[in-house]
Specification:
Elements: E1 3-7, E2 11-17, E3 20-28, H1 32-45, E4 54-57, E5 63-66, H2 76-85, E6 91-98, H3 105-122, E7 126-130
Antiparallel strand pairs: 1-7, 2-3, 3-6, 4-5, 4-6
Helix pairs in contact: 2-3
């Protein structure tokens, strides 16, 4: 029987970088449909955010990410990189950004999304689950 790591429950963290506000939301998810539904809920909740990029990884091998109109590779990939760094599965992270008037540059933007994703995961409990066949 296989095992994987995920988060026990959802979490939310708010960070600020040079005036921009980043709100990270992490959720345990069961499948792609669950992840897509939660992305819609977060996007609706933070409808006025400048961007709502995300990344998710499902135990079936389904991995998706989106930069949501941020420069390519600056949001979704760094979020996914954090999921992989913590070796998590069946997880979704959505980070809503409110632009604060100061451009962060590609490197600064990538770091801001990565740091917010890490803090969001660190604010919840990581658990081990068995794969049910």
């Amino acid at each position: 029987m296989g095992e994987y790591f995920t988060i026990e429950k959802g979490s939310s963290v708010k960070t600020k970088v040079k005036g921009s506000i980043f709100i990270g939301n992490a959720f345990p998810v069961e499948n792609k449909e669950d992840a897509v539904n939660k992305i819609k809920i977060v996007s609706k909740k933070y409808y006025d955010a400048t961007h709502n990029p995300f990344a998710f990884k499902i135990e079936t091998g389904d991995i998706r990410y989106s930069d949501d109109r941020e420069p390519p590779g600056t949001a979704g990939k760094p979020i996914l990189g954090v999921i992989e760094k913590f070796d998590l599965t069946n997880i979704l992270i959505v980070i809503s950004r409110y632009f604060g008037g100061i451009k962060l540059g590609k490197g600064g933007l990538s770091r801001a999304y990565k740091d917010c994703a890490e803090k969001t995961i660190q604010s919840t409990t990581i658990i081990k689950k068995a794969v049910i066949i």
